[in-house]
Amino acid sequence: MAPVTVRVPAKVNLQLSVGPERPDGYHELVTVFHAVSLFDEVTAAPSDELRITVEGEGAAEVPLDDGNLAMRAARLLAAEVGIDPRAHLHIRKGIPVAGGMAGGSADAAAALVACDELWHAGLPAERLHLLAAELGSDVPFALIGGTAIGTGRGERLTPALARGRYHWVFALADKGLSTPAVYRECDRLRAGQASPPVVSEALMTALRSGDPSALGRALCNDLQPAALSLRPHLRLVLEAGEEAGALGGIVSGSGPTCAFLARDEAHALDIAVALSSSGVCRTVRCAHGPVPGARMVRR
Ligand code: C5P
């Protein structure tokens, strides 16, 4: 059994509309996921027991036990096929940890694909998708990538008609934000006044036209006021991106990473330099999207 390496992208939500809380504690969402070229790599190698190692930026904050969604993914897949979960999962982080870019969910998706291959399980895509949805709201999207509309709690996906390649700059923060805490703050700020979410027509039109300026204007995130409330400093980051000439700027998912859209690659570099020198964020990354979801790169 040779080791299997799977590469998996980060996501940014081009739209994140949060409806009322459901009886199961999740919120009804309409979201537009967009996979971008910041990647984690998960290598599954033969081992007597299930264990995880992590390298890369923020590795020290990543749990090595069942708090790690990749560990839970391996266990769930093994139970599904009726075998013992024996694998060494090694994660190389390129996606910011606790950054609102679904890094943990991406690792879970990659672990599903890598272990399926390592253990010759051969599960069909639909079954992997069901396991992914059980693991977390963002895990199914990490399997497919591209640009997709998510409904339910985010796990029900329809590919979006999207044209063109978009160039992004991401401003990374010192410290992560807890997703449940941001949803709680969103509920508190809205005091139960959430209406049912709907797909943004302006965003769909922008994606169909492939016009980055229109896309920049259509970006929207209902979790942004909550992230700004918990981390007021993010306002300065968004202002710095706007001053640097971004076509649009938004908190990514539950934050604290901020995403800025550029006209093209050169413009993205200009924005990245301006953000770096403004000193408002820990570091910046340039990336493009859409990119495919979890894919095997080595065996
Ligand atoms: O699905 P996942 O475990 O990734 O979600 C993490 C947390 O984010 C949930 O425990 C919940 O607090 C919040 N969440 C939510 N509604 C969603 C998705 C996530 O409230 N649709």
Automatic annotation (TrEMBL):
Source organism superkingdom: Bacteria
Enzyme Commission number(s) of this protein: 2.7.1.148
Ranges annotated as spanning the membrane: none
Domain GHMP kinase N-terminal: residue ranges: 68-146
Domain GHMP kinase C-terminal span(s) in chain numbering: 204-279
Keywords: ATP-binding, Isoprene biosynthesis, Kinase, Nucleotide-binding, Transferase
Full protein name: 4-diphosphocytidyl-2-C-methyl-D-erythritol kinase
Organism (species): Carbonactinospora thermoautotrophica
